[in-house]
TrEMBL record:
Domain of life: Bacteria
Keyword vocabulary terms for this entry: Hydrolase, Signal
Family classification: Belongs to the transglycosylase family. Rpf subfamily.
Keyword presence, Hydrolase: yes
Protein name as it appears in the record: ATP/GTP-binding protein
Pfam families: FG-GAP_3, Transglycosylas
One annotated GO molecular function: hydrolase activity
Signal peptide range in chain numbering: 1-31
UniProt domain Resuscitation-promoting factor core lysozyme-like: residue ranges: 32-106
Amino acid sequence: MTERRTLATTLAAAAVAALLSPALSAAPAHAASVATWDKVAQCESGGNWSINTGTHYGGLQFSASTWRAFGGEAYAPYAHQATKTEQILIAEKVLAGQGEGAWPRCGPAAGLGADDADPFPAPLPEAAPVSAVGDLTGDGKPDVLARAGTGSGSLYVYPGLGNGRFGTRIDNGSWAGIAQVSGTGDVTGDGHADVLAVEKASGKLYVYPGRSDGRLGHRVDNGGGWNGMRIAGTPDLDGDGRGDLVAVESATGRLLLYPGANDGHFGARLTIGTNWDSMSLVAGAGDLTGDGNNDVVAVEKATGKLFVYPGTGNGGLGSRIESGTNWDSINSVSGAGDYTGDGIHDLIARQSDGRLFVYPGTGSGKLGTRIDNGSGWNFS
């Protein structure tokens, strides 16, 4: 603690001096990845981003004077009251001015000075949507949706062949005005899987009824306000036999469940999780754990790990299962059933370079050796 009190005084004085004398701010700027900041926080506070020791605050253990001097009060009076992202943004300013020595013990131990990564880089342009979907072609096998990212934005249905591969695509016309596309279970009560879509201009959510010929029926309007959501369909998360919708609310990070109402609409939403803005990808999946309930999958931003969240059969989620690493190279993931013909539900994933893979499920929340379906699936 003595080291921290000395650090706080030094940092506060240096910050004020830098404001008075530009020449003092000529030290080279630095930045660090979220993963490295997590290491610093683990060392400083046990990774507790909301800790308040009475003299130091937050995951990176700011003193009150340092937090103020580097502009932290724009977010919250004390660091522990700010979000993890906001704490890191202020820490970046401290790092730029003082280097890793601002955290004398934990900074060097975490390699803070050697990491020049931007913790929050501007996102790359989003590739056109690809999504697993149930059987839209009437052959009893789940299919894949893919929308072109250029030209008319054609939406294609790729029939699943039951061996981890796909047949000749079926063109469903221009979808250039659509921002998000996701397959879901039967929301319209006709026995066919359906398709969800959010319109760019209006923010409206539409349900497109599936048929049995790879085509879609007349859409059902579910109203606006959906541009602030990351949507994903699910075959059935609450156990009532109808397709549902899960969504991450951008403003709050909450994971919301919208139960399908059997007429192309949805019932009152339920909050089933918080802090899901820490996930880069969230999607509905079939039953990956072999318990008869459909699950949710997510890729964690900070670690790139893939997690399977087992559905409880009533809309809730159980304890997550780590199912893979290095999934930060994936920009689309979803599941809708058995793509390989072995009776076990699988995952569809597209890599950032445009390669599409089928990951066979094992029935335990883990995945088998992936099947490569070639490149070109970014459609941009």
